[in-house]
Write a structure and sequence with these properties.
The chain is 72% helix and 0% strand. The chain is built from 6 helices and no strands. The protein has one domain. α1 (3-27) runs antiparallel to α5 (119-153) and α1 runs parallel beside α6 (156-169). It is mainly alpha-helical and 183 residues long.
C-alpha cells in the first residue's frame, strides 16, 4: 500500500469514527436538513478523496472491487424495484408490529433526533442522504478499505472483519444494546 492508501485507510478506521463521535454532541442543536446535507457532502468528499488515492496508486475502480453490472432491461428493473419495495414494506410492517411488543428496544436519543419529521426532511433523507450513504459507504468500506486491507494483510477474511468493524465504529452514534431500553 502506498503512503496515501495507508493514511486514508487509517482515516477511515480511526479518524471517521472519532469525528462522528465528537460531532454527535454538536449536532443535537442543528436542524435535521443541515445534518442531512452536511453528512451527504462529507460522504461525497471522502469518496472523492478515496478515488484520488486510488488514482494516485495507479489503480482503477475495478481494482477496488467496483464493477459495473449489466443493465437488467426495463422489465427486469421494474420487477426488481417492485420486489425490493415490497420486501422493504414488509420489513417496515414487521418492525412497526414489533414496536408494540414488550421488551422491544427504543431508539437512542441521537437516532430519535435524526429521524425526519417534515415532508421536506423526508424527501431530503430519501433522495440525498440515503443514496449518498449507500453509494459512498459501500465504495469507502467495501471497496477501497477492503481492497487496501487485503493487500496489507494478505487475507481477505481479515480485511472483511477489519473493514466491517471500522464501518460499525463509524455508526456508533446509532447506539448499542446498552443505550436502548425496553419500550
Amino acid at each position: 500500500m502506498s503512503f496515501w492508501s495507508w493514511t486514508f485507510a487509517l482515516l477511515l478506521m480511526v479518524g471517521v469514527p472519532l469525528q462522528v463521535r465528537r460531532s454527535m454532541a454538536v449536532i443535537s442543536g442543528l436542524p435535521r436538513s443541515a445534518i442531512y446535507l452536511n453528512s451527504s457532502i462529507t460522504l461525497w468528499v471522502l469518496a472523492a478523496l478515496a478515488w484520488g488515492v486510488v488514482r494516485l496508486d495507479g489503480d482503477r475502480l475495478a481494482d477496488v472491487n467496483v464493477r459495473s453490472v449489466p443493465a437488467p432491461g426495463t422489465a427486469g428493473l421494474v420487477a426488481w424495484t417492485l420486489a425490493l419495495t415490497l420486501a422493504g414494506l414488509a420489513l417496515f410492517a414487521v418492525s412497526l408490529a414489533a414496536e408494540g411488543m414488550r421488551g422491544w428496544p427504543r431508539e437512542t436519543m441521537s437516532l430519535e433526533h435524526l429521524r425526519p419529521r417534515t415532508r421536506s426532511e423526508r424527501v431530503l433523507a430519501l433522495l440525498v442522504l440515503s443514496p449518498s450513504a449507500g453509494l459512498c459507504e459501500e465504495f469507502l468500506y467495501r471497496g477501497f478499505l477492503m481492497d487496501r486491507l487485503t493487500s496489507l494483510t494478505g487475507h481477505a477474511p481479515i480485511a472483511v472483519l477489519i473493514s466491517s468493524a471500522a464501518f460499525g465504529l463509524s455508526h456508533l452514534y446509532q447506539g448499542g444494546p446498552a443505550e436502548c431500553g425496553p419500550a
